[in-house]
Structures are given as C-alpha cells and as structure tokens.
UniProtKB/TrEMBL annotation:
Membrane topology listed for this record: Multi-pass membrane protein
Listed name of the protein: Na+/H+ antiporter
Signal peptide: none
Principal subcellular localisation of the protein: membrane
Family affiliation: Belongs to the monovalent cation:proton antiporter 1 (CPA1) transporter (TC 2.A.36) family.
Regions crossing the membrane: 6-23, 30-49, 84-107, 113-138, 159-176, 182-200, 263-285, 305-325, 346-368, 380-400
Cited NCBIfam families: a_cpa1 (TIGR00831)
Ranges for domain Cation/H+ exchanger transmembrane: 13-404
Stored Gene3D superfamilies: 6.10.140.1330
Cellular location(s): Cell membrane
Function: Na(+)/H(+) antiporter that extrudes sodium in exchange for external protons.
Pfam families assigned to the protein according to its UniProt record, in alphabetical order: Na_H_Exchanger
C-alpha cells in the first residue's frame, strides 16, 4: 500500500516538473508528458502498476470529455459543423478501417485485433495543436475546427472501440448489427445525457453554494457515464451531450463565486488526468519492453512507422479532398475561394495528433477474453498505440510552430471585435439602468453621479477605437493601461501584507481583501478592454 501511494506521489510530482520544463521550453505540455512516459519506462527499480481496465475508462474518460465539451463555443461549433463532423466521424471511420487493413496485411494482425488498433488511434487529441495555434494567434476558425473535432471524435472513436473490443472478447461480430446498434446507442445516449443535464440545470438554479455546486460538476460526468453504461448505451456520448448542454446554460445558473473556482478546479483536474495517463503508459511499457527481444525491436519500430504513416496520409488525403472536391461535384461552389484556403487545409491536415484518449483506450484493453484466454496481442497493441502517439504528438507537434510560420497563417480580429462590442453593449445597458433608477428613493445622488461618470468615460473610450482601423493604437493603449493598473494593484497588495505582518490585521482580513484584488487582476488578464477605464 505504501509503495503504491509513493508511486502515485512520484507520478503527480513528475507531471508538475515536466509541465514546468515544457513552459520553459515553450512547447505544449503534452509533448513533454509523452516523452516523460517514455523515460519512465526505462527507469530501473520502479514497480509495475496494474489497474483494472474498466476502471481506467471510468476514471479518465468522463472528466476529460466533459471538460472538453464545457469549453466549447456552441456558435462556433455549429458554424463549422460540416468540417468538424467530416473529421470527427468520416475521418475516424476511414482511419479505423484503413489502419485495420494495413495492420492486417502488412503486420499480420488478425482482423478483429486490427480493427481494435484502428479504433484506438482514430481519435485525435487537439490539446497540443490548439495550444500552439492559440499562442501563435491562428484564425479562430482553425482553432474551432481542431478543438471541435477532438471533442466529437473522442466519442466516435470510443464507440467504435467498444464494438471492436466486444467483437474480440466474444469472438462474434456482425457489421450490420453493429451499425444498427451504433445508431441506436448514439441517439439514445445523447438523449439520456441531455435529459440528465436538464435536470441538473434545475438543481443548480436552486443552489447558491460554490462548494456544493462544484462538487456536483465533478460528479456529473461520472453520473452520465455510469447511467448510460448501465442502460447499455455509450457513456462517452452521454457525457459529451451533458457537457455541451450544461456549458451552454451555465451562465444562467452559476454565480461569479461559483464560476471562478470551478474553472480553476476543472483546469487543474484535466491537467493532472492528462498527465497521469501519459505517465501510466510508461509504467505499462516496462512490462512490454521486458517481454521483447532486441531482435523484435526493429520490426516493431517499423510497424509503428507503418501505422503512423497510414494514419497521417489518410488524414491529409481526406482533408484536402474535402476542400477540393466540392467545386468538382458542385460547379456553383467558388473554386477560387476553396483554393485560397489551402494553407488552412494543410495545417488542419497535419494536426492529427494522438494523445490521452488513445492512451486510456489502449490501457483499458481487457486482459482476458470471454473464454478465459488472454486478449490477443494486447502488449503489441499498447506498444503500437504509444508509438503512434509518440510519432504524431512529438514528431508532428514539434513541427507545428515552424509550419504555421512557413504557411504565413495569422490571427484575425474577430474575438477582439466581439469583445469590444460586448463591452459597449454592457456599458450602455448599465447607463440605461442608471436612468431607470434615477428617481428611486433608495438611490444615493452622489453615488449615482459617480457611476454616471464612470460608465460615461468607459463608453467614450470604447468609441475612441475601431478595430481594424486603429488596432495597433488600441493594443498599445490597452498594454499601457494594463501595466499601470497592475502596478497599482501590486502596491495595494504589498500594503495589506505589511499590515498583516505588523499584526494590524489578521489573516482572514488579508485573504478577503486579497481575493478582491485577485479578482480585479484576473479581470484585467482575461479582458484587455477592461483596461480602457
């Protein structure tokens, strides 16, 4: 027991250290984590860890998928639905089938096992890609497509994975029956997730206690997953549907006191779970590598490159075909417009990075079949899955930054424009409300005048700039104002710390005022236009 606790502590510590190294090197942290998992496989003396496969799926997948769904912009997701679904469903199915074909004929895997491998590596993980894209200021549409694809294809790939594994375990598989069940399970699971989410929105409306509400959000993905699995549905699809619905409506039932700590809790949880999966695979690889001879290694590495190359080429071909076929099939489509998007198409085609979801699926493979015999080629499947993740996440991931610069892709002002528009609308609404309350008996005339001045100055400064015409001037103005506000906040913070150190105030008072200053600082960090005032 003590050894297990020590090992878990070591893994969580390693996650933090690797993420710090990634930050210093300015690379997406999943790349460092997968390299860390590889290093762990060669550290002598570390014990092997064996986790129930069903437990891996239940512990890791629901919160990761729920977190991804929660951060999705429904408007952007809906406006890019066609390319997202093409990648998340069409590409996943194509990758599963063609990787299975290549694995069967070129590696010699049995058909059933080959389909399991195809299902494992079919979903992409856009964490590294979207992190790089956002840091370099890519167009919003590309980031939306990458993140939307990653969210939906997790569900698609894992549903296929479930059927493929069941076919191996039970030694029976019918394509038509699986297709019908896939459709029924998909629709039923989504409806179940939506129904659960609707009930939870009613519950959240009755509550106003951050600790309880955040606890409910932590339980929600597991509740959706368990309920769907117990009803022989897809826990992944139910969790995804629940996350999308609750995210869409959360602004109406969460207070700021709940929303701020909830975001912090979920960011930390997703980060740790992602890291834990990457390092767990390193411990699993120890047993696999011990069972391999040096003579097998060149052949295995060749198999990794074969499967990785198949997945990469399939993605590139399908992504480019989806952009260039419409003018051929429909003459009314603007050919020039399609051709002008080749840079975006090339980047999206290259960002087929595999990550934590594929790792969790590989580790979750059962040890035995229904008849009691060992799951065929389980160690080989895990090794190949990790190899594909290493090639795509590290190999392709490290090339994203130079590729983006080479293609000359730049961000747009759409987010800044919408943020400025929203601030102006909110400011006008505040001024209108002040007009409505002017004659109310409880309103202080002095404070009313102060608020009028504050919002009036705010609106005047919003009108000073128009993004696109004076973007550089606006950003310089924002940066200057932000620096001044941060300097003032630092002075306030230093003053109250000095009072606490002199015992003029106690720690509870310090924490109360510190929270107010922290919230103000976060407001400055999250919304540059708030520095206009």
């Amino acid at each position: 027991m003590a050894e297990t606790v020590t090992l878990i502590f070591f893994l969580f510590t390693a996650i933090v250290i690797l993420a710090m190294i990634a930050m210093r090197l300015r690379i997406p942290y999943p790349i460092m984590l997968v390299l860390g998992g590889l290093i762990i496989a060669f550290i002598p003396g570390l014990p092997a860890i064996h986790i129930n496969p069903d437990l891996i799926l239940f512990v890791f997948l629901p919160p990761l998928i729920y977190s991804s769904a929660w951060q999705t912009s429904w408007r952007e997701f809906h406006s890019n639905l066609r390319p997202i679904l093409l990648l998340a469903i069409g590409l996943v199915l194509a990758t599963t089938v063609l990787v299975a074909v290549a694995s069967h004929f070129l590696i010699g895997l049995p058909w059933s096992v080959a389909f399991v491998l195809g299902a494992i590596i079919s979903p992409t993980d856009a964490v590294a890609a979207s992190a790089t894209a956002q840091s370099l200021g890519l167009p919003r549409r590309i980031v939306t497509i990458l993140e939307g694809e990653s969210m939906v294809n997790d569900a698609t790939g894992l549903v296929i994975y479930k059927f493929a594994v069941a076919g191996v375990v039970t030694a029976s598989f019918s394509l038509w029956q699986a297709g019908l069940e896939f459709a029924l399970v998909g629709v039923g699971s989504v409806l179940l997730g939506l129904a659960l989410a609707w009930l939870l929105t009613r519950l959240h409306h009755l509550l106003d206690e951050p600790t309880i509400e955040i606890s409910i959000t932590l339980l929600t993905p597991f509740a959706a997953y368990l309920l769907a699995e117990e009803l022989h549905g897809s826990g992944v699809l139910a969790t995804l549907a629940a996350g999308l619905y609750l995210s869409r409506h959360s602004s109406r039932f969460f207070t700021s006191g709940t929303r701020l700590p909830a975001i912090a809790v979920w960011n930390t949880l997703a980060f740790q779970l992602n890291g834990f999966v990457f390092l767990l695979i390193g411990l699993a690889l120890r047993d696999i590598l011990e069972n391999l001879s040096l003579r097998q290694l060149p052949s295995l590495l060749g198999s990794v490159l074969l499967v990785s190359g198949t997945a990469i080429v399939i993605r590139l071909l399908l992504v480019f075909a989806s952009s260039y076929l419409p003018p051929v099939l429909n003459p009314r489509v603007n050919i020039g417009e399609v051709r002008s998007r080749w840079r975006s198409t090339a980047l999206i085609g290259w960002t087929g990075l595999r990550g934590a979801v594929s790792l969790a699926a590989a580790l979750a493979l059962p040890f035995t079949l229904q008849n009691g015999s060992l799951f065929p080629q389980r160690n080989l499947l895990i090794f190949l899955s990790f190899g594909v993740i290493l090639v795509t996440l590290v190999g392709q991931g490290m090339t994203l930054t130079p590729l983006i610069r080479l293609l000359g892709l730049k961000g747009d002002d759409s987010v800044d424009n919408e943020r400025l528009q929203a601030h102006k609308a909110a400011t006008k609404a505040a001024i209108k409300r002040l007009d409505d309350l002017r004659d109310a008996e409880w309103v202080s005339e002095d404070f009313l005048s102060t608020l009028y001045d504050y919002y009036g100055r705010k609106l005047e400064q919003f009108d000073m700039f128009k993004l696109g015409e004076q973007a550089d001037a606006l950003h310089d103005h924002l940066n200057t104002n932000a620096r001044l506000r941060h300097e003032v906040l630092d002075a306030e913070r230093a003053a109250i710390i000095k009072l606490r150190d002199n015992n003029s105030i106690d720690d509870e008072v310090l924490r109360t005022i510190e929270r107010e200053l922290d919230l103000e600082e976060q407001r400055l960090s999250q919304s540059p236009t708030s520095t206009l005032t």
